[in-house]
Fold Glucose dehydrogenase [FAD, quinone].
Amino acid sequence: MRVTIGILFSVLLMINLSAGTHILRLLSEYSLTTTYGIRTEQLPRFNEYDFIIVGAGPGGSTVANRLSENQNWRILLLEAGEPEGILQQIPSFSSINSKYDWQYKYEPQDKACLGMKDRTCPCPKGKSLGGTTTINGMVYARGHKLDFDIWAQQGNYGWSYEEILPYFRKSERVNLREPVDEPYRGRDGYLHVQNSPWSTPVKTAFLDSGKELGYDVVDYNGRQQIGFSDSQLTMVNGTRCSASKAYLRIRRLNLDIVTEATVSRVLIDDNNHAYGVEFIKNNKTYRINAGKEVILSAGTINTPQLLMLSGIGPKDHLDELGIKVVKDARVGYNLCDHVAFIGLTFLVNQSVEFLANARTPEAALQYAINGTGRHSGTLPSAVAFARTKHAVDARPDIELILRAGAFNMDGDEGRSRGISQEVYDKVWKPIEGQVTWAIWLSPQLARSKGRITLRSTNIADHPIINANLLDDPSDVEVLVEGIKFALNISQSQTFQRYGSRLHDTKIPGCEALEFNSDDYWRCAIRSVTATFNHEMGTAKMGPATDPAAVVDPELRVHGIRGLRVIDASIMPEIPVGHLSATTYMIAEKAADMIKRSWQN
């Protein structure tokens, strides 16, 4: 369901335009010179800065804030997108496929996305101040203790759970309904983490079903991750709390932020020292020097693209494109994501309003005045983490996300996810107008790995993203078990009070298989595939003895002085959860490492 500009203007005409209304508070934070208190420059004010940061997502925004705490350092933050807009602050609004989205697409898949248009899954990534945190589902989920202990065991000193937990706590300002595992949570950070003000009967039923099945309602960012939970979201007072809103609403004369500036390469001298960047703005090319370091925080897709365009990458691939090789490195490999099955739909046979209608003037009015109601929430309204029979250790290997409404209630959502018209018309169109709910599932410890390569030497050409989704059959088998778990939830006494039943129209391409059999679900999984857009790993962290490592445990690019990577691309293995939370932690820790390095 989408909020439109027309709705907002209609609401403003309907209400008393007093300074206390929620929408007017948002408008008051937006002007031509600043956006939510963030001042930007048309161009860099100086020819040289101490640190140049590329990308203003959860990595770059955080590092820019922390490094600018030192008033003796000049910091330049370059962002390819624009400042985020007013509509991005409304949780129910989607900016996917807009100017705030890079609008990447995976290459056509052989084993996944078969029911998507052109066998291609979209890959939305944020292109604005705040990066992907301006367009994502806002779920804040850190990962399991073992995830980080395994990173440390691989030779990444300083990255055990005990060592990184203080940085999770440092980043967040938590304000949640119970339960809250206080020793693991932070109250004084920049990033607001809250529950949605909006709730529905389906969320209550989901949590009660978990209890019925023997699970606790937990704080999944505390000591116990396995269980059912209300979604913890990066939001504040009914609005999105993006990375830029969290970390860049600071007025520091030593921090310059330049938007709509696309960095095309890192400048590296003959001694393998990164001394600046080249960027393009308004069709003009500029060069700016970095006295201390260049920091790439452009994300899992753009960071490897920039590294390779700068001569850091696989020699054979760079040679093919005629790029001078500065450092032969495994850049672009190890791509991993939380793949998902999004085809489970459930109907109810009672006239219960599981989902408030977002298209009504009343819903818009409620949000405009108080910042509450349907528009203050996101469709991922509750989550569960569990272990299937395929789990290999204490970590949950499946995540279930409750969706208050399926694609039949919002065809635009299905189209934005890439579902083909044939599949939509067969499965969801016949039940348009009926009340539904859905569960999306994702294997948390995905084994399928892909790769990013350059399409050309032009920064404007999107790189080739071969995600290789569901290549490892174990990812499919975890999803099959996850579906069985989801069906158990739907068949609980709690949901049966609403007459909940599985929508049993077969997915095109799977008609010959017995519905609800394992083989049917294997086919359905490979057809109605999506990802949670948690791409990671393409500039892997590891010690010098690891031939696949691109950066060392202090995130310095191996073999290149003055160049670090601080974003999700450094993750050596995919953690449980949602990766923006972990990226904030990485950036907080990296900022401290940089400070120690230069203070010494």
